[in-house]
Write a structure and sequence with these properties.
Shape: globular
Strand content: under 5%
Number of helices: 7
Number of domains: 1
Number of strands: 0
Helix content: over 70%
Largest sheet: none
Radius of gyration: 17 Å
Oligomer: single chain
Length: 190
């Protein structure tokens, strides 16, 4: 279990550093603060460690691992909350091979949600040229994909059984996110 925590923490820290660099790249006012950087990298490290622990506990049949995952998602709040719809639906797409329709639907939703974020932060960004916006998109895609994969610990098969409340939530929450995003998208474009 300690190995999973260390690997998760290291992966989280690396993800945080790369995501912080991406944030610096896309910002309209490129300022740098140590407090912001340390918060982002620190939170990502803690989230990675919690997800590593959750994965190890789930594999060993331990209980409470899904609470660690929920806590991890909450730690990525603030500015990162805009990524939650893509992360949650992407986690379902990565982790649930059956039913196939849910996997394809949630994968499509994750792509749409990521596109909405990119439209807002990259393509509507007056500081970035079109080429820079494309670079920001190519940079962001694997980052959100890695985050969704990390959170797929909740939905992954062949591990310890998932509590029935969590199973129901894993079906209802992505659909609710998709409906909410559709309503928001209509409001944004309307």
């Amino acid at each position: 279990m300690p190995r999973s925590i260390v690997i998760g923490a290291a992966a989280g820290a690396g993800w945080g550093v790369v995501m912080r660099a991406w944030m610096r790249y896309i910002t309209e006012s490129p300022e740098f603060s140590w407090s912001g950087t340390l918060f982002i990298v620190g939170a990502s490290t803690v989230v990675g460690a919690l997800l590593g622990l959750a994965r190890a506990r789930r594999r060993s049949g331990g209980v409470g691992w899904w609470r660690l995952t929920a806590l991890s998602l909450a730690l990525l709040g603030a500015g990162g909350a805009v990524m939650w719809p893509a992360v949650v639906t992407g986690a379902v797409a990565f982790g649930r091979p059956r039913p196939r329709w849910l996997r394809w639907l949630t994968a499509a939703a994750a792509i749409v949600f990521s596109g909405l974020v990119l439209r807002d932060v990259a393509f509507d960004n007056t500081r970035l040229t079109t080429v820079e916006a494309v670079v920001a998109s190519v940079w962001y895609a694997p980052m959100i994909g890695l985050e969704a994969w990390a959170f797929s610990v909740v939905t992954a098969p062949n591990l310890a059984p998932v509590p029935s409340k969590v199973k129901k939530t894993l079906t209802v929450v992505p659909v609710a996110f998709m409906i909410a995003a559709g309503v928001m998208a209509m409001g944004i474009s309307g």
